Protein: Wzy
Organism: Algoriphagus aestuariicola
Amino acid sequence: MKVKDIHLTNWIFSVWPLFLFVSQKALLPLQFLSFLILKKEKLLVYFLVFFSAFACFLMLFWINNSMKNDFGFSHFLGFVLFVVSVVLIGHSCRISFDLDLKWITIFNFVSIVLAIVFFVLNLDFSFFRGLNFIRGSDGAIHRVFIETTPLLILNDYSLFKNKLLNIFLFLLTFVYVFVLCKSFFIIIFFVWRLWVDHSDLIKRKFWYFFPLMLVGVVFMGVELVSYVVRADLALSIVFKYNQLLGILELISGDFLFFGRGFGFVIEEYVTDFSQPYQIEMQLPMLFLQFGLIGFLLFATFIFSIFFISGIHKPLQSTLMYFSVGFVNPWLFLPIWFLTCCYFFRK
């Protein structure tokens, strides 16, 4: 690959070590530069989609009294930055899909190695962002989560000419997903993508892959059991259930269509005081904040970007994107949108 062929496109979002110091949205100037220098295929369409979405949500910002909320402007600004990033991702996805996937895989390799090294050395990165060591009451690290974790399920395990290097990448990813991260949501999509990519090979050489599949099933079983018997499981379920009930109670006739405004907060459900308007049940909360009209506009916007970007199975990609809204507040995370762009690749 020639240096001149390396564009500042989607893969810049997978350079996880950068996220120890800056947020994903801080890289938007680089993405915008890429947007200008790359091939101008359907450039006007993307501009029209962006300005249409911006105009609609700006109107919604005024209609639903977002200005009356203490966090209305902060929420709206973060959302607009996300809209910009989605347009840029969609555009670069259309014109450099395969190239981006190669770079995502390469930088995922680097990210996994660094995450495992940091875990083994038990380094303290609590003063940095983008790396989360979840410790138990015993002080030991129970889980490791890096900001670009969703992208790891996109790895291309046939990228390198050296087969041993591909196997090594897969084993590292397997260890991170099942042993360190242990997110059941990520595990499901990791196994799903793996089966779609290599089902024919697995069927032909079943007994070759059987030991690894058995280990994977055991890990999944252990993780599922540990999740079920977890001491705080009941509290977690009750908390999410109460979040859902509290949100449904506030969706009244007066606020059904246009919502209660950007930045609307239910104080008893706040877990992140820097962004109190985003909770674990982010999708129902968005419905409450945006209202039916705003939510349908948002869903249409996401589907439109998938569709005009030539993403394979745009409807399934849209459903995958919104599925995380009941698990984690990732809906405005460019990394998650980027993951959905590549998941249903041909």
About this structure: Residues 1-6 have pLDDT under 50 and may be disordered.
